[in-house]
Amino acid sequence: MDIEQVTSCQRVRRALNHEEADHIPFDLGGTGLSTIHVTAYQNLRRHLDLPAVEPHISFIAEQLARVDEDLAELLQTDVRPVIPGTAAGFHYVIRDEGAYEAYTDEWGIGWHKPKDGGFYYDIYHHPLAIANSLDEMRTYPFPDPLDDGRFLQLRSQVEAAISKGKSVALSGPCAGIAEVYSWLRGFEQYYIDLALNPTFVAYMLDRLVEFKCAFWERTLKEIGDLVDVVVEADDLGGQNSPLMSPKTYRSLIQPRHKRLFSFIKAQAPVKLFYHTCGAVRVLIPDLIDAGIDILNPVQISASGMELEALKRDFGRDLVFWGGGVDTQRILGTATPDKIREHVKQNIEALAPGGGFVFATVHDIQANIPPENIIAMCEAWQTFGVY
After folding, report:
1. How would you write 247-269 as a 3-class SS string?
2. Quick one: CA dihedral 296, 302, 307, 309, positive or negative?
3. Pairwise CA distance, residues 236 & 227, whole Å
4. Please, are residues 360 and 376 in contact by the beta-carbon 8 Å criterion?
5. Main-chain dihedrals φ then ψ at residue 358, nearest 5 degrees
6. For residue 348, which phi and psi values (nearest 5 degrees)?
7. Is 120 inside any structural domain?
8. Is residue 100, in this structure, part of any structural domain at all?
């Protein structure tokens, strides 16, 4: 089926403007939040008889592959990622630590992965876990957001995507402000801080907003007119509820989100893509108020995240980038026929009137059979026509 009646860039922009194009746009690999684990990626390439390649890892901790252009073209994906480089003086060094492989990132956070059967790196060292004063947080060294290494290949990535008529999604230099704070502090201490140490939270989130604003100001000055989407990401939801009360979000995190998101939008005419997993329906009005334009990954297996209701209640204000197939309970275990029916139902819920970019619910995990990925893509091609 030939769906190239308009360019990918035009197709995505119409979706972002809540308009229907010739076809629902498709993203696989356009962001680090809608891509594929390196194991599943290599299996898919072999299944499709594509040449063996040494995969480029876009995020070491989650072992996410950057989708090569031959596969992206074969699957007719519409979005290409633009990913900042690392600081010029920083290099990831994988250490041998007995039963684990380990590394320390540029924030001083330690990650490790079991050598025997591990798919991902988990955090084992939170550098601010025992900090108990603002002075310790003030003096903790942050990376340089303006290090030239972050910017060296941004324009070349954008120009390569534009030359193929693709839409561009621009990622930031790190995870979201709340996420980075939780990694620095440790998850248990992060939640204690939200309840008992709000001064710590406010101070560190303000520092992180300043870090991000410095990066985004330079980046968007250089390439902002060529970019469709800017990506920010935290995780605010669990399987059954938000990870904090709406009151806590509004008092501590939302004001910093507003400041950051409004700053980004003041630099360039971009749409703000915001990733949060989980049951976040109750937070969606606050996220819209904070300035997000796009919600990802639309975790349909979480409580309260039924697609029809989300589209009805928030479809005028939000673009849904995700929700195409449930990676938690369907994509890995269902039959191809079941996957096709599942995709059809999700498209019927989210496609009317535009405002939908088809993508998996978060990244495709390591154990997903290639046959199931192909069934998903075929269903998108068949049922995604307007």
Report:
1. HHHHHHHHHHHHHHHHHHHHHCC
2. negative
3. 26
4. yes
5. -70, 125
6. -60, -30
7. no
8. no
Cα torsion angle, 60, 63, 69, 73, sign: negative
Does any domain span residue 190? yes
Tell if the pTM clears 0.85, that is, is over it: yes
Nearest CA among 226, 216, 302 for reference residue 260: 216
Cα 184 to Cα 55, 125, 140, 180, 366: the distances in Å are 29, 8, 10, 6, 27
Check if the beta carbon of residue 321 is closer than 8 Å to that of residue 294: yes
- How many domains is the chain built from? 1
CA–CA separation, 142 vs 122, rounded Å? 21
Q: Reduced to 3 states, what is the DSSP secondary structure of residue 374?
A: helix
Question: What would the two tokens of residue 42 be?
Answer: 């290599």
How far is residue 254's CA from residue 280's CA, in Å, rounded to a whole number? Answer: 14
pLDDT tens, N- to C-terminus, the chain (386 residues): 454 479 999 999 999 999 999 999 999 999 999 999 999 999 999 999 999 999 999 999 999 999 999 999 999 999 999 999 999 989 999 999 999 999 999 999 999 999 998 999 999 999 999 999 999 999 999 999 999 999 999 999 999 999 999 999 999 999 999 999 999 999 999 999 999 999 999 999 999 999 999 999 999 999 999 999 999 999 999 999 999 999 999 999 999 999 999 999 999 999 999 999 999 999 999 999 999 999 999 999 999 999 999 999 999 999 999 999 999 999 999 999 999 999 999 999 999 999 999 999 999 999 999 999 999 999 999 999 99
For residue 164, what is the domain's CATH number? 3.20.20.210
In the block, tokens 């356009």 appear at 30
163 forms beta bridges with none
According to DSSP, the β-strands at 319-321 and 356-357 are: parallel
- Could you give phi then psi for residue 58, rounded to 5 degrees? -85, -25
Question: 109 in a domain, yes or no?
Answer: no
Measured N-to-C along each axis, helices 198-223 and 254-267 cross at an angle, to the nearest 10 degrees, of 10
CB 244 within 8 A of CB 283: no
Strands 64-65, 36-37: pairing kind: antiparallel
- Side chain identity at residue 182, one-letter code: S
Nearest Cα neighbor of 341 from 377, 305, 382, 379 is 379
**Would you say 92 and 60 are in contact if contact means Cβ atoms under 8 Å apart?**
yes
Structural domain of 185: 8-90+129-383
